[in-house]
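Q: Could you predict the 3D structure of Benzoate/toluate 1,2-dioxygenase reductase subunit?
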Amino acid sequence: MSYTIALNFEDGVTRFIGCKAGETVLDAAYRQKVNLPMDCSDGVCGTCKGHCEQGEFDMGDEYLDDALSDEEAAEGQVLTCQMVPSSDCVIQVPVASSLCKTQVGKIDGTLAVVEQLSEDSIELAVDLDEGAELAFLPGQYIHIDVPGSDQHRSYSFSSKPGEQRATFLIRNIPNGLMSGYLTQLAKVGDRLSLTGPLGSFYLREITRPVLMLAGGTGLAPFLSMLEQLAQKQEEEQGSGQPMHLIYGVNKDHHLVKVDALDVFAERLPTFTYSTVVVDEASKHPRKGYVTHHMDDEVLHGGDIDVYLCGPPPMVDAVLKHFDKEGIVPQSFHYEKFTPNQAPGEVS
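A: Sure. Here are the predicted structure tokens for Benzoate/toluate 1,2-dioxygenase reductase subunit:
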């Protein structure tokens, strides 16, 4: 038996390793040429300390309190030299990937589909090369090299991990480098190079109600999250916690992938969603901003995990709204992106 361990480094790089039954994370990492920090490997120094965000494991009792206190262990801190996983795990490693002699992965693929969903949204599908492995956490993003240039653009996956076809929702930016390629030059069969995965915005284990807030093509990571959650539901591993998505756009025809959300609502009994349109001339039943439609029913008195992905003004507006209303979620994960840049600030 082997478990998949996601190592998230502080520079945003994620590296996935396999860990054999009974093997420590440190040994598994070294076996796969990832040099995690360590001095003693005996649970004495604490150099290999990290934080396990999700997963089951055994730490044993062969380490010193000076290396890992009871309080730290209760908060999810681990010593990778002693940690023996009993499930897939996600571990935060508090150093840059370069210091561990590892680097972000690279993979190639073939352009399979380019479809303009609306005036401001494009869907891109890339068939990864046969035998290529692209593991990621739902919500993360990847760099895609723009053909004919020496630049890349960064996009969140809308597909779930493990698929041979990776999909993305891309904002159509007038005179944008990637937008120009996709709308004017791209053709099925073009070769694309991808680098990643990256980012700290990803789905955590669900233990309480969830509120998802998406702006425009910020819907992409939620499609990836929902796809994985739906699969778990079908495998009878669903959490049973209520999940609500508020999806905001500027104009009626900017609403895309609503049919996919309808399917998720059928596959996930506890999932609901609502759409919001900013345009005052719209006849949509819910107008304004997402902050206008966060009622008590979806806020659960603050006993929620909030995931937010959208342009900076939307992210800032939600942060200010929470502060003004005195809403303090149990956890709050957000990502804001700007045109022609990688997804930006993550918390």
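Q: Anything worth pointing out?
A: The chain is about 20% helix and 30% strand.
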